[in-house]
Design brief:
11% strand; three-stranded antiparallel β-sheet; five-stranded antiparallel β-sheet; single chain
Amino acid sequence: AGGVSDVFLQTHVLTLLRLLGAGNEAASEEMNDVLAQVATNTETSKNSGNAILYECVQTIMGVESDDGLRVLAVNILGRFLLNRDNNIRYVALNTLSKCVMEEKRAVQNDTLAMTDGAHNAASALQKHRNTIVDCLKDPDVSIRQRALELIYHLVNSDNVETLTAELLNYLVLCPRENRSDICTRILRVVEKYSPNDRWRVDTLITMLTIAGRESARAVQSASIIYISRTTEDLRAYATHKLLKAIRDDDGTQKGLLVVGIWCIGEYGDLLMKPYNYTPSSSTGVADLTGAMGSSSSSVSFAANDAASIVATIEEVIDRHMCPEEVKQHSLTAFTKLSERFANSGDSVTLSKLQELVQKNSKSHVLELQLRSCEYDALINAMKGVKVSSGDDDIFGAGGGELSAGVVTAAKEALARMPVVDISVMQKQRTSGYGRGGDDDSVGGLDTKKIAVPESNGGGDLLDLEDIFGGGDASSSQPMQASTSQNAIVSNGISAAAEPAPASDMDLLSDIFSAPTPVPAAPSMNGGAHDPFGAVAPSQPQPPAAPIDAFAPTPMTNGNGMMNGGMDDILGAPAPVAPPAPENIIVPACSHGGLFIEFECTKPEPMDTQKSTLVAKFKNTNNAPIHGLNLQCAVPKYVIMEMTPPTSTTVPVSGVNGASEVTQTITVTNKKLGEKNLMLKLKLGFTANGAKVDHMATVSGFPAGQF
């Protein structure tokens, strides 16, 4: 068994042994010696020997082998990681990941599986941890990705600090499109294995400092929740550290700004006191590179005055590229700080805060304008100042001073937020509501609420489960790149000709079910279709003559004869033909700064079933969108042809010289008049360095025309 005489024969024999020993303890016991001999005596100087060793490892892991053989198999894969051949290293990482997942499933299914042997195999895998971490520095992206997946599985309560530091180091160097997924995974590691609250806060702040631009909204919300659930001492520490990070940032880390400004507004009074902390000998502090700092160094923050705190936030929102979400959080922070600094005696700063709140009272953004007016009234109510509008007061009708109850209620509204129950947050994440990404959309589809029924004779929509990744949204992973990962709101666009508006749920149910037979209306025009008329009614109508869409409107002479479109020599000229109908614009979706609308036309007037939809992409972001990818699915009664977009890069709309990006879709509705056209879109692009994925349903096409 030690020599390599016929590599193909040996690999097939090992595969046969794996099939025979799977789930059979007696057969596995008999082949243990053979597997051990092959694993120890096979030469690895050539790829043929490596192929036999790989198949031997697969067999050891696939049968009921003893723990010693499993440790031997892990060590063989560890030697593979030291090989200079990238293919062998990739195979080793992939196989180790499968081994770890199988052991975890075995432990979950049988609590007795955690024996000493299982610990020995796990410890053998931990011995190769440094080699696996070194694979994160490999120039081959596939090896880096596999090593990253394996490190996630290796994390436990004993090595969480070391491996999390390596993940933060990799977060600095990894491509931007992968950062959102890594941030989400770091959050999961922190949630499950965090040794203490201070380490958790340090890790989350460091992560936001490195990749706040790419972090999902769920990661930002979870960071805020964990900070709010800590002690008063840790809140002061986190707020001081976030304030320093915001001052050092150039305004590009949106997640850091959102979390930092929220904490400053909530715990701004703690910033006016100095803070000192000396870590214990067993606790390390993660710095910006993820390295563990010296345990003997103390952490000190000087006290801040109210004016400098307000100036820091004002500097952030005055930047030209400041996102609207950050401005909204800053508006709330200014209002909260008005209450936090009320007893500071700094009347100039308090007046400045109210001016900053009032500054957005005429903003073109409705949310900022509305909140500005509400917050201004709330600040005045907290001060006991009565603001009247006409004869009625904002907080109550009639004259006189504000009641003590109104003043107390205003102060309570600006008090600190109650602590969030962590079990509720975890339950929402389990239910699928904790995924990242924006939740504002036009024409979106709530994928969590719509379940596709099982196919019973061809009723599904072109097997959309396979086209768009399969499975309902509740079982899907968060968006990698964000997943979104988030709840998408359905807009419920319905056809105008229906007696009652139908929601997207009803429309999708109509698509996924078998079409309801409708009695055909009798032919009214001898086979020709009236392009200017409505859908044929179900009741019989008097027959009509065919109409030529390209000829002038026919006239009748005194004898009732048709002029055939020619002018009467003795009479007035025939009237001019009515203009062709204008192109119909149907909004498709709007997500992540990308707006899509369809320009709908009929290329062949005599073929009313065929339509041309030109998708026009508009970029409302401040930077171009790259990697545009639009996928489309239609019901089975619709035939679709789709051309590539004119460009995969969408420039900022409204800029001089920017060309419009379009994509043409040709559809033929075979059941025009019975079924309306509906499209299901899957959109993918990269905006501001973050990968965005979105699904939407378009159902706003005029009934009977498309």
